[in-house]
From TrEMBL, chain A:
A matching Pfam family: Oxidored_molyb
Oxidoreductase molybdopterin-binding domain: residues covered: 93-229
Enzyme class: oxidoreductase
Name this polypeptide is given: Sulfoxide reductase catalytic subunit YedY
Keyword match Glycoprotein: no
InterPro entries listed in its UniProt record: OxRdtase_Mopterin-bd_dom, OxRdtase_Mopterin-bd_sf
Keyword Kinase: no
From TrEMBL, chain B:
Protein name in UniProt: Prokaryotic cytochrome b561
Entry keyword set: Cell membrane, Electron transport, Heme, Iron, Membrane, Metal-binding, Transmembrane, Transmembrane helix, Transport
Record PANTHER family: CYTOCHROME YDHU-RELATED (PTHR30485:SF1), NI/FE-HYDROGENASE 1 B-TYPE CYTOCHROME SUBUNIT (PTHR30485)
GO biological process, one term: respiratory electron transport chain
Amino acid sequence: MSGGIGRRALITGAVAGAGTLLSGCDRLGRDERFQRLLRTGEGGNYAVLRLLQDRTALAQEFRPDQRSPVFRMNGVRMPNGDDYARHLATGFADWRIPVEGLVAHPQAYSMAQLRAMPSRTQITRHDCVEGWSAIGKWTDVPLRLLLDRAGVSPQARFVVFHCADPQSNGTMYYESIDRIDAAHPQTILAWALNDELLPPGNGAPLRLRVERQLGYKQAKYVQRIELVSSLAGINGGKGGYWEDVAGYEWYAGL
Amino acid sequence: MIDLTAQAASKRSPEPLAAKGGDLAYKHRLPTRLWHWTNALAVIVLLMSGLMISNAHPHLYWGLFGANFDQLWFNPPRFPGWTTIPSTYNLALARTWHLFFAWIFAFGLLAHMVIGLANRHIQRDLTFRRADLSPAHLWQDVKDHARLRFPTGAAALSYNVIQKMTYVAVIFLLLPTMIVSGLSLSPGFNAVMHWPLDLVGGRATMRSLHFIAAGLIAAFIAVHVVLVVLAGPYNEIRSMLTGWFRVPPGPVEPAVARERWAPRIIGQYFARVERTAQEDAA
C-alpha cells in the first residue's frame, strides 16, 4: 500500500513535474488569454486601491533629516540629441511647456513662469518598480493649478506627459495618469530637488511627481502636457513607454 | 468523520479515537484539502515570481529607504532561471504573476481562517491542551521528531504539539506577515495606511522582512515535504487528496519505516544517533 510509489519513481516524478511546471509557466506567460487572466489582478489592484484610498489621501511625507544622502538617478541621465544640449546650455530659457488637448484655453508656460507660480514643497519617497527607494525634497508647481487654468473639458479622462528623452527604440518617453491622480494635491511638476534646480539626471528642467505610484510613472524632461479622452491613440495604446514596450502595469500603485 | 455513510463507516473507522493500526480513517476535511492545494500552488508561484523580482534589485537594506549608495545588509544571490517565473529576466511579467496569485493567496488564507473557525477545525485541531504544553510532553515530542519516530495508531490522526506550533505559527503569523509586508510595499496602499511601515521602521526594512518571511516559508515547505516523504508519501498525499488516511500500525520500528523512505545516508545517520543514545542509556 504505502509501497505503491517507489522512492526512485517519486524523485523522477518530482523532477519531471518541476520541469513541466517551469516550461509550462513560460508557455502560459506567453499565452495572450492567460496574460489577460493574470492582468485581472492588476485591474483588481487598481479598483481596490482606489476604493480604499480617499481621493486626496496623502503619500507619507518625511522630515528633512530623513532624506537619502544621495538621490539615485535612474534610466536616462542625459537625453540624447542637440536640442536637449542646447536647452541645457541656455538654462532652459526657451523651454516651453504647452498644456493642450481637451482643454478650453490651451497655453504654454516658460520655466520662469512656472517657477513664479505658487509652489509646494514636499519630502516624499520614490519607490522604483525594481525595489529600491529614495527620499527627496521636491519643489514644484501643483499640476492642478495648470489644469484649472486650462479649463479641462469633461471629456478628458487622462493627462499625458510627453517627454524629451528618446528611448533605446527611438520613441520619446511618455506617461499618463487618470484625473483622480492629476487633481491630487501632491501631484506636482517638480523643478527643484533638495533645494537645487533639477539636475539632468533627475529630469531637468521639469519632472512629474505622482506620489502614490511607482517610479516609472514619474516622467522626467516633461515637454508637453496633453488632455485626452482615451489612451488608444498614443503609441502602443497602453498609456506609457514601459507599459507599451515591456508590459508594466499602467496603474503603478502596487 | 461527520459525513460518512453507514456503509463506509462499517468498513472504515469513523471515530478517530477508536482507530487502530491498518484502519482507514477520515483525517482531512474538504475545505482543508482544497485550501492546502490552492495555497500550495499560489505559494509556489509567489515564491518563484518573487525570486525574479528579487533579481531586479538583489540588495536588501534596513530603514526608510535604500538604493545603491546606501548601506545594505545582504545581497541575495542572482536566482537561476529554473527557480524563477518566468525563467528569463522579465520583471513586468513576474509582477503580473505575483500580483495575481497574491489575491488567491490572501483571500484563500482568509477563507481558510473563516471556514476553519466555522467548522471548528481551528478550535479542535490547532489549539493546545494543557497536557500538550507540559515540559515532559514537549521534550518527548522533540525527541520523537529528532529520531523521526512518527506517531502511530489514533495519535497519528491528530497533530502533535510541534506540528500544531508550526501550523499555528505559519497560518497565523508567517502567512499574514507575508500579506501585510507585501501590501506595505505598495505606494498606493501606503497612502491608505503607513503605520505598518512606521511600526517596523520603513519601507526598506519592510522589503527585507518580506524577503526573510519568504525564506521562512520556503524552509517550511522543505521540511514539510521531507517529513511527508519520511512518514510515507503515498498515505500522506492520499489523505490530503481524498481525506482518507491509513492509520499506521504501532508501535512501528522507526528503523523499518525509515528504511522504506529515507535516503540511505539519512537512515545511517539516525541509526548512529540511536545507537549512541542506547549506549549512553546503558
